[in-house]
Design goal:
The complex is a heterodimer of chains A (107) and B (120). Chain A is mainly beta and 107 residues long. Chain A contains no helices and 9 strands. The N and C termini of chain A lie far apart (36 Å). In chain A, β5 and β6 form a beta hairpin. With 120 residues, chain B is mainly β. Chain B is 0% helix and 51% strand. In chain B, the strands form 2 sheets. In chain B, strands 2, 4, 5, 6, 9, 10 and 11 form a 7-stranded mixed sheet that branches. Chain B has a 4-stranded antiparallel sheet with strand order 1-3-8-7, with no helix packed on it. Classes of the chains: A mainly beta (107), B mainly beta (120). At the A-B interface, β4 and β5 of A face β5 and β10 of B.
């Protein structure tokens, strides 16, 4: 299985801050990586697929980059509704493993 | 509107069996895979596997192979996740979700989740 390691596990930030979350894979693959946002008590929501493609309806302050083993999710200017937990997922090979999650908290 | 609607919360005892459901609507149910994701209390997401309702082709994560069974009834656009013998460690929220297109795509449509509690 491909192991996905996210860092940091949590981050405290203020509205307007730029936030960067990283995801590292245990083996290299192309750009088959997705990012999700999950708010408490809700199902996850797809934000980014294929490493850098923005899902329809997702604000442009979210962006993704990377390939191989290192990937990044960036929120350019954190908004109040962005406080949530974020997960990466590799979509290269079964099982499609998730990272452990990064909780974005209010500073 | 494309959506997945899951069955309600369940409380069961260890050793009991259970089948939860996920009903698709607003799209061609037999043309898309359906996946299952586990989230234990306070923990992260775990990909359990997927099923293709068109022909019931299934792919299980090794972590869940033999522990659960996926099935689907295409006549009523419903996928199922079942356990034959529940354990306390099966206590979790279970989500069904639909990949964007192919079996190894990320999930763009999610059900609301079914909470399963297993306790004596």
């Amino acid at each position: 299985d491909i192991q996905m390691t996210q860092s940091p596990s949590s981050v405290s930030a203020s509205v307007g801050d730029r936030v960067t979350i990283t995801c590292r894979a245990s083996q290299t693959f192309g750009s088959w990586l997705a990012w999700y946002q999950q708010k408490p008590g809700k199902a996850p929501k797809l934000l980014i697929y294929a490493a850098s493609s923005l899902e329809t309806g997702v604000p442009s302050r979210f962006s993704g980059s990377g390939s191989g083993t290192d990937f990044t999710l960036t929120i350019s200017s954190l908004q109040p509704e962005d406080f949530a937990t974020y997960y990466c997922q590799q979509a290269n090979s079964f099982p499609l493993t998730f990272g452990g999650g990064t909780r974005v908290e209010i500073k | 509107e494309e959506q997945l609607v899951q069955s309600g919360a369940e409380v069961k005892k260890p050793g009991e069996s259970l089948k939860i459901s996920c009903k698709g609507s607003g799209y061609s149910f037999t043309s898309f895979w359906i996946g299952w994701v586990r989230q234990m209390p306070g923990k992260g997401l775990e990909w359990m596997g997927i099923i293709y309702p068109g022909d019931s082709d299934t792919r299980y994560s090794p972590s869940f192979q033999g522990q659960v069974t996926f099935s689907a009834d295409k006549s009523i656009s419903t996928a199922y996740l079942q356990w034959s013998t529940l354990k306390a460690s099966d206590t979790a929220m279970y989500y069904c979700a639909r990949p964007r297109s192919s079996s190894d795509d990320p999930f763009d449509i999610w059900g609301q989740g079914t909470m399963v509690t297993v306790s004596s």
